[in-house]
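Table S2 (continued). Query chain:
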Amino acid sequence: MLPTYRLPDVPKDAVRPARSAAQGFTLLELMTAIAVAATLAALSVPMFTSFTRNQRVKAATSDLVFALVQARGEALKRNANVVVSPDTDGWGFGWNLTTAGVTGKLLEQATPTFMTSGGVKTSYLDITGPGTVTYNGSGRLTAAVTTFQIASAVGSTTQIAPRCVSIDLSGLPHSTVSSSGTCP
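Corresponding output:
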């Protein structure tokens, strides 16, 4: 017969470590965590502001290109002139698509970001362009058009390059980032 071995008895205190009397964290640890969070927030706010302004310029550029493509498509579909015109306060506050023979507007106030304070509208964007853009029934422009320039109108604009939207001979819009700070 084989001998049997028995493990020695171990006291219960040796198996489970004793709990410490204090649980949680100290005031010093809390203050250190708050100081680190405040430092990170202070460093990220300027970068987030610049990011937000750049995204506004990008979004307005995309919206304008979409409106021009839609106007061209509607002109082809209806075989009629379709006009893209600025809002009554200017391009920085939006634009409208209209066509003769249609009651109302095809697209009303495709609005870039602006704010209203005390009854005064202020645009976050500075958009310059022609008085109107008119597409004829063949999808081409009825007159030569200058380039649109979309830039941030608030804060330091040195970090945010303006975007240019130009329309080629076939009537298709194209957007580019201006490396010189102005559009041709």
